[in-house]
């Protein structure tokens, strides 16, 4: 669920919560977050429309961001710079979890001959931070750095079910889009989330993409059992064996938690 800035009629600009960011940093945040998953580059006009910030201000800030390598020029357009990618890789929560999960992702993708993804809660969104594998039919895992749909994917529904306070349905409902004829509607989703809470895993049977199904299980912290993210496998519906996939996912999830415990113990040694 990606939320854009909301322009105000008085010429001020508003963020996702409807309030105007008056600081330069707030406006920079709107500019950088205006880039969506499918945007290779955006024009000055597009950035102005998406942020609600005055065009002259957007132009000035974009020039500054290019100078510090957070944006790059693409002709007359702008694209995200590699420096942002490098900074993102240094985020400790993501880096530690990716490091702990990487062997499990690779082993799982090979064992099931299917793409595997690791996604984590990020504010009001769900972010894929790592993936492995590609099935011979060319179905791929979610690309690292991509935001996932919360209501139509297995990891998204799992996150909604396990973090209801962070992801209230009232806020999600207006943004729900039917991806396929099987995508759950707003009136059916609450019952699905109750079922997920009870069984401890989530499935997506062609709710996000026709012909493909997915299974997701939680990855939990080693000390408090907190929900850290979702480990998921996607495969063609015709060959998706849910019991087998679920068993393999749970084993992999437990392996990730064990590795996290070892990493934490190593870091706390005198």
UniProtKB/TrEMBL annotation:
One of its GO terms (molecular function) is DNA binding. Transmembrane segments: none annotated. SUPFAM superfamilies: GAF domain-like (SSF55781), Winged helix' DNA-binding domain (SSF46785). Keywords: DNA-binding, Transcription, Transcription regulation. Residues 1-21 are annotated as: Disordered. Residues 83-262 form the IclR-ED domain. The keyword DNA-binding applies. The keyword Signal does not apply. This is Transcriptional regulator, IclR family.
């Amino acid at each position: 669920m990606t939320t854009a800035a909301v322009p105000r009629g008085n010429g001020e600009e508003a963020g996702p919560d409807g309030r105007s960011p008056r600081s330069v940093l707030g406006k920079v945040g709107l500019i950088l977050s205006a880039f969506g998953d499918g945007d290779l580059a955006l024009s000055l006009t597009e950035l102005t429309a998406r942020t609600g910030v005055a065009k002259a201000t957007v132009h000035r800030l974009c020039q500054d961001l290019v100078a510090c390598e957070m944006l790059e020029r693409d002709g007359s357009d702008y694209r995200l710079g590699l420096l942002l990618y490098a900074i993102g890789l240094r985020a400790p929560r993501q880096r530690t979890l990716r490091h702990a999960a990487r062997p499990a992702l690779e082993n799982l993708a090979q064992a099931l001959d299917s793409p595997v993804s690791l996604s984590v809660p990020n504010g009001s969104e769900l972010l894929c931070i790592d993936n492995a594998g590609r099935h011979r039919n060319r179905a791929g895992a979610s690309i690292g750095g991509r935001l996932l749909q919360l209501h139509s994917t297995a990891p998204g529904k799992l996150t909604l079910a396990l973090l209801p306070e962070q992801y209230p349905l009232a806020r999600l409902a207006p943004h729900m889009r039917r991806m396929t004829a099987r995508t759950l509607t707003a009136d059916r989703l609450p019952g699905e989330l109750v079922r997920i809470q009870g069984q401890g895993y989530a499935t997506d049977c062609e709710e996000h993409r026709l012909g493909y199904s997915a299974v997701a299980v939680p990855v939990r912290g080693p000390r408090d059992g907190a929900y850290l993210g979702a480990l998921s496998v996607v495969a063609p519906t015709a060959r998706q064996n849910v019991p087998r996939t679920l068993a393999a996912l749970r084993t992999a999830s437990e392996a990730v938690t064990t590795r996290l415990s070892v990493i934490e113990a190593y870091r706390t040694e005198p």
